[in-house]
Each structure stands twice: as structure tokens, then as C-alpha cells.
Amino acid sequence: MLMKSLSIVAVIPACFLVYYGAVMLFMVPGYPGESYFATGRVIYGCVPVTLGVGLFLLARWFWNRSRVGR
């Protein structure tokens, strides 16, 4: 039961991070002529998406570990 709870707790910030990162990457407009790979766009877009995917993988690992003992 603890592993399933940890899995649920890990999924909540993962959803937020992936949503926030995707919005920063694809929805926040820069000024005309701005390079797509601007520093702010990479830091506030790619980093949260990467962390969110990592948390999804951690949540999956927790969920699978909760089923091993059965």
C-alpha cells in the first residue's frame, strides 16, 4: 500500500511539470526573430518536461514494486 501511495504522490507533480514545461516550450511566444533555443525557453521548458518524465518513470517503478510481493 505504501508503494502505491508513493506512486500517486509522484504522479501529481509529474503531471504539473510536464504541463508547465510543454506550455513554456510551445505556447509562450517570444518576440519576432527570437531564436527558438533561447536560454529561458530551454530552462523553463525542457528541464520541467525532463523532470516530469523522470517522475512518471519513478511512479511506474513504485507501482510495479507494489505488485511484486503478491
Compact overview of the structure:
With 70 residues, the chain is mainly α. It is built from two helices and no strands.
Describe the structure in your own words:
Helix 1 (2-26) packs antiparallel against helix 2. This protein has one domain. The protein has helices at 2-26, 39-68. It has 2 helices and no strands. The longest helix is centred in the last third of the chain and has 30 residues, at 39-68. By secondary structure, it is mainly α. It is rod-shaped and about 60 Å long. The N and C termini lie close together (12 Å).
Report the structural category. Answer: mainly alpha
**Extended strand count:** 0
| Number of structurally distinct domains | 1
Major β-sheet, in short? Answer: none
**Overall 3D shape:** rod-shaped
Q: What is the N-to-C order of secondary-structure elements (H for helix, E for strand)?
A: HH
Topology:
Elements: H1 2-26, H2 39-68
